């Protein structure tokens, strides 16, 4: 009996002190982590465009360039935003681009039926968006109206934005102040065609896609455009199966996937006042991304074994109740350390599937859902999610390093999640970066990292952490959460030892 008790005690003790371990083959790696997975999304929704990006040319209180906030542009430049999706979302399938070009005073209004029923005056249109992308240094990703538009409308939009020769649309573009085409590469063929984009069946949409895609070429000055099919919602694998089977692959460059981390669509919970249980539930939904990518990729592999077609996760992020007193149709929510953990873990998942996931867009950039920037009149703040995306951008276009992770469990009640999420890459200068997330809400985690194939002599790092998971940046205290120097990593020979505080995100640089 004594012996059994001793054994039990020993087992328990070893569990408490058991260590996370990672093996990284630092001299290997073949897939590139496409920088396009660091894309963002800007919809005509709430205060994303109006008040967020755009304050109008006549605004004398907020510094702007052609009506676009300079503070937002500067912040997004630092973030190295590779692409920006516009004008929706659900809004895109109600949007008629011709209403948003030409003299602003002559532009017709419309009603934004999806988001708050507000009047849209079309003052922010194609020129405003594409010129803004040039300011930010991001590639535009236009979402074409398939739900309520026409093939001709989409075809003429491409002719307007991309055609360098003489044509009715390129002539009109010149008359509206832009001679040179913008050469827009990324085009979404509708959005959520299974829902707000037309409530279509996958078979019907696949046929519609073929029709639209046919007339989307011919205007691109020999530059290939990248057409993205409206993809599945979370685990709708049938949708992906039908698209991959029915759409000829020479007409398809990407297939989308939308997955939001939401506890319950009828009971989402507060963005900033939440329990550990709600944190755990959100992380369960967020980490599901790994399984979703594996299963959608398996279907894609069956039809496209050479992985020519990209999986484009063009809407992802946490979705909570709107902040008290704000318009429910505007989807304005605060952003805490919970969202930083969600972002860090999701980006690690994307990295580790970089052979298939080659583009993604966080929803949404400013003032909507898991935003990286919040504005209030003249004020602007960067959210914890912003800081994670900035710390992580060292991985953009770097080579993914294969790693093997053995992680402790983070338990809540009877359920368990991995405590640690990790990914690693080597950039073109030969510098290696490791991004680590301690998902555990309560415990520090020690990680022993074995570095194989390369002899490193120095390690530096940055950490994002807060005392509480609920910590966030507010207009009263905009710097509450920001990255700081991380000193809990030491290298000795081929072993790197790291101690991470509970609920923290760390990026290490090894030379
Ligand atoms: O991002 C908010 C909305 O969520 C988008 O408009 C839509 O595509 C999705 O359902």
Your description of this structure?
This protein has helices at residues 2-17, 70-79, 126-136, 151-162, 168-175, 202-214, 237-246, 276-303, 337-352, 384-392; strands spanning 20-25, 39-41, 64-65, 68-69, 83-86, 110-112, 118-120, 139-144, 186-189, 226-233, 254-261, 310-318, 357-363, 373-376, 379-382, 399-400, 403-406, 409-412, 415-418, 420-426, 432-438, 445-452, 459-464, 484-485, 489-492, 495-500, 504-510. It is α/β, with parallel strands linked by helices and 511 residues long. The protein has 10 helices and 27 strands. The strands form 7 sheets. An 8-stranded parallel beta barrel has the order 2-5-8-9-10-11-12-13, surrounded by 5 helices. The radius of gyration is 23 Å and the shape is globular. The chain has 2 domains: 16-28 and 402-510, Sandwich (Immunoglobulin-like), CATH 2.60.40.1180; 35-397, TIM Barrel, CATH 3.20.20.80. Helix 7 (237-246) packs parallel to helix 8 (276-303) and helix 8 (276-303) runs parallel beside helix 9 (337-352). 26% of the residues lie in helices and 26% in strands. Bound molecules: alpha-L-arabinofuranose. Residues 43, 88-90, 191-192, 315, 363-364, 369 line the site of alpha-L-arabinofuranose.
């Amino acid at each position: 009996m004594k012996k059994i008790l001793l054994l039990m005690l020993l087992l328990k003790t070893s569990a408490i002190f058991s260590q996370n371990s990672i093996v990284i083959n630092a001299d290997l790696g073949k897939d590139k982590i496409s920088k396009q997975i660091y894309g963002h999304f800007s919809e005509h929704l709430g205060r994303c465009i109006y008040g967020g990006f755009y304050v109008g040319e006549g605004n004398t209180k907020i510094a702007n360039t052609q009506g676009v906030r300079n503070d937002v542009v500067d912040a997004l430049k630092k973030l190295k935003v590779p692409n920006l999706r516009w004008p929706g979302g659900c809004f895109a399938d109600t949007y008629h681009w011709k209403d948003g070009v030409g003299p602003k005073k002559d532009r017709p209004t419309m009603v934004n039926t999806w988001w708050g029923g507000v009047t849209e005056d079309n003052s922010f249109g194609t020129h405003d968006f594409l010129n803004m992308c040039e300011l930010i240094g991001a590639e535009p990703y236009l979402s074409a109206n398939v739900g309520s538009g026409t093939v001709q409308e989409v075809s003429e939009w491409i002719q307007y934005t991309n055609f360098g020769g003489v044509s009715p649309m390129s002539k009109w573009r010149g008359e509206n102040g832009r001679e040179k085409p913008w050469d827009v590469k990324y085009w979404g063929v509708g959005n959520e065609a299974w829902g707000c984009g037309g409530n279509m069946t996958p078979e019907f949409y696949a046929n519609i896609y073929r029709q639209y895609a046919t007339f989307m070429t011919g205007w691109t000055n020999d530059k290939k455009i990248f057409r993205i099919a409206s993809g599945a919602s979370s685990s709708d694998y049938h949708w992906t199966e039908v698209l991959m089977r029915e759409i000829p692959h020479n007409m398809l460059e990407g297939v989308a996937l939308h997955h939001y981390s939401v506890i319950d669509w009828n009971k989402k919970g507060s963005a900033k006042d939440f329990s550990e249980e709600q944190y755990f539930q959100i992380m369960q939904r967020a980490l599901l991304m790994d399984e979703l990518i594996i299963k959608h990729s398996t279907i894609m592999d069956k039809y496209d074994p050479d992985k020519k077609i990209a999986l484009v996760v063009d809407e992802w992020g946490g979705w909570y109740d709107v902040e008290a007193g704000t318009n429910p149709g505007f989807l304005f929510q605060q952003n805490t350390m919970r969202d930083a953990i969600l972002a860090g873990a999701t980006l690690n998942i994307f990295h580790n599937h970089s052979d298939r996931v080659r583009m993604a867009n966080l929803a949404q950039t400013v003032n909507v859902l898991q935003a990286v920037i919040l504005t209030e009149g003249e004020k602007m703040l960067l959210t914890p999610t912003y800081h994670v995306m900035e710390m992580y951008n060292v991985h953009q276009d770097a080579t993914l390093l294969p790693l093997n992770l053995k992680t402790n469990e983070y338990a809540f009640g009877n359920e368990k999640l991995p405590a640690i999420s990790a990914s690693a890459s080597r950039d073109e200068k030969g510098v290696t970066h490791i991004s680590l997330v301690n998902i555990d809400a309560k415990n520090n985690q020690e990680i022993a990292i074995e570095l194989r194939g390369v002899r490193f002599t120095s390690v530096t790092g940055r950490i994002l952490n807060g005392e509480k998971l609920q910590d966030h940046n507010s207009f009263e205290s905009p710097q509450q959460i920001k990255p700081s120097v991380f000193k809990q990593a030491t290298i000795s020979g081929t072993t790197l030892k790291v101690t991470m505080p509970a609920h923290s995100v760390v990026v290490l640089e090894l030379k």
